[in-house]
């Protein structure tokens, strides 16, 4: 199985990057599949900056921006915020970070998000992680975590599952057709899942089979 290092930007003979575009890994999976938790683990070990699209949108609400009310309403309904809003927040966060390696978590959520991101930034992901988790397990996790989120109630959770199946799975299928998806069984405990994740990020020489 290919690792992230296999598809990282190419370097010329002097070691400078031929392709100066940042390395992006999209982290996808249903609500409660463990994207955020695993991203925190990944950044500790592999030098990436973690950008959660959901967290950026929630920060935008808190900042009192003019889009805040619209974003809040969409999140409460489990709907997907217009691409231009999310992409602008992601671009800003990428610039601010000063890094050139990003884990983008919870985005793109539909085909329109995906196409718009690629068109606006010119960036294609190196790899797409797909945290594949049983719905009943995701539901259990969302209902037992207590982060005060307006969308962690059973009514909104059901809507988020539906949006995931109808809109986000097609994005995963698209990247599957390009050979970029690394599917991880995310129904297991956090530590076990991270063992699988590590194998994807570790350089080939350090991979244990
Ligand atoms: N959201 C969105 N676009 C994004 C990411 C998130 O519209 O690119 C909204 C959407 O309403 C989603 C909510 O933010 O249901 C929470 O997203 P997050 O990724 O934080 O949570 P998840 O549903 O993956 O647990
Ligand atoms: Mg999250």
Automatic annotation (TrEMBL):
GO terms classed as biological process: 'de novo' pyrimidine nucleobase biosynthetic process; nucleoside monophosphate metabolic process; pyrimidine nucleotide biosynthetic process
UniProt xrefs under InterPro entries: Adenylat/UMP-CMP_kin, Adenylat_kinase_CS, P-loop_NTPase, UMP_CMP_kinase
Cofactor(s) listed in the protein's UniProt record: Mg(2+)
GO terms assigned for molecular function: ATP binding; nucleobase-containing compound kinase activity; phosphotransferase activity, phosphate group as acceptor
Principal localisation: cytoplasm
PROSITE patterns cross-referenced by the UniProt entry: ADENYLATE_KINASE
NCBIfam families the UniProt entry points to: UMP_CMP_kin_fam
EC class of the enzyme, as a word: transferase
UniProt-recorded name of the protein: UMP-CMP kinase
Binding residues annotated for ATP, in chain numbering: 32-37, 145, 188
Reaction equation(s) it catalyzes: UMP + ATP = UDP + ADP; CMP + ATP = CDP + ADP; dCMP + ATP = dCDP + ADP
Record text on subunit structure and interactions: Monomer.
Binding positions for CMP per the UniProt entry: 113
Cleavable signal peptide: none
SUPFAM superfamilies: P-loop containing nucleoside triphosphate hydrolases
Assigned protein family: Belongs to the adenylate kinase family. UMP-CMP kinase subfamily.
Record: residues binding a ribonucleoside 5'-phosphate: 58, 79-81, 106-109, 149, 160
Annotated localization: Cytoplasm; Nucleus
Enzyme nomenclature, EC number: 2.7.4.14
Pfam family, one: ADK
